Amino acid sequence: MYERRGERVLPLGAFVWRVIRHVGLAVVVVATSLFGGILGYVHFERLSWLDGFLNAAMLLGGMGPIESPQTPGGKVFAGLYALYAGMVFLVVAGIILAPVVHRVLHKFHWDEEPPAQYDAGPAGGRSRRRRPSG
């Protein structure tokens, strides 16, 4: 999916498309999570679709629900959905930042030393040999 250490950095146009694909995936994850939250609030708390949207969106946005759950099922759902929403935030941040962080690390060669290669030494055993730097 990403270029390896020995490969050249992706051209800017292809990199922009990679970022767009990642943002698209993040939008799908958020939209699916929002829809699941709406369904949960409508089912367990008997809220309207608009109120379910508001509560789910506020939880996904990190603000917390507008209306406190009243039913036992709604309380369980709201607690589990709040934990899930926190994880979605981290996952979406990772999805969006992954291509940018990879490009920065790849471009500035944070992993400058290639993996050690083994060859037969003078005694016939295995010894490490490093590539010359530069």
In short:
By secondary structure, the chain is mainly alpha-helical. The protein has helices spanning 12-45, 49-60, 72-107, and strands at residues 117-120, 126-129.
Q: How many strands appear in the DSSP assignment? A: 2
What Rg, in angstroms, do the CA atoms define? 24 Å
What share of the residues does DSSP label as strand, in percent? 5-15%
- Just name the CATH architecture: Orthogonal Bundle
Question: Based on CA inertia axes, which overall geometry fits?
Answer: elongated
The profile of the biggest β sheet is: 2 strands, antiparallel
Q: Which H/E pattern describes the elements?
A: HHHEE
Q: The CATH topology is what?
A: Helix Hairpins
Specify the number of helices: 3
Could you name the CATH class? Mainly Alpha
Average pLDDT figure: 85
Measured between the Cα atoms of the first and last residue, the distance is 28 Å
Tally of domains:
1
What strand order characterises the main sheet? 1-2
